[in-house]
């Protein structure tokens, strides 16, 4: 495993966690949006992460050495299928005939927990990146 692979793995994780934080921020910002451009309430977005391999030669090398050098990538962003939240407010302009307004299925407490998890994962990958950098610098000092 080369040290550059370690940088690539940590870098892909940093990119994925930053994207995850962006989606969480979008969910929090739209937590009260009852009508989007399509005319429906906003639906919470969820990020699906998956592992990624670095290439066909790398696949062969991984198989031969039984070591997986993978990174992470955003597979897709999907809508949360859970139900929207009905709130009785007949004075609201988006209320239906029964007086209910459908609010997004965004739970801000859950979003904050997800944001903390993504932030911690980001910090852990920064630490791994810095550790790799430190190891490489020490190895270069040995060569002097």
Largest sheet descriptor: 2 strands, antiparallel
Q: In which order are the strands of the major sheet placed?
A: 1-2
Number of alpha- plus pi-helical segments: 3
Structural class: alpha+beta
Q: In percent, how helical is the residue content?
A: 40-55%
Strand percentage, roughly? 15-25%
Q: What is the CA-atom radius of gyration, in angstroms?
A: 22 Å
> Any idea what the shape is?
elongated
Summarize the entry for a quick read.
By secondary structure, this protein is α+β, with helices and mostly antiparallel strands. The protein contains three helices and four strands.
Task: Supply the key terms.
single chain; 144 residues; alpha+beta; two-stranded antiparallel ribbon; 3 helices; 50% helix
General description of the model:
Helices cover 50% and strands 19% of the residues. It has 144 residues and is an alpha+beta fold. Strands 1-2 form a two-stranded antiparallel ribbon. The chain has a two-stranded antiparallel ribbon with strand order 3-4. Helix 1 (3-29) runs antiparallel to helix 3. The radius of gyration is 22 Å and the shape is elongated. The model has no long low-confidence stretch (mean pLDDT 88).
SSE layout:
Layout: H1 3-29, E1 45-53, H2 56-65, E2 70-79, E3 85-88, E4 100-103, H3 108-142
Antiparallel strand pairs: 1-2, 3-4
Helix pairs in contact: 1-3
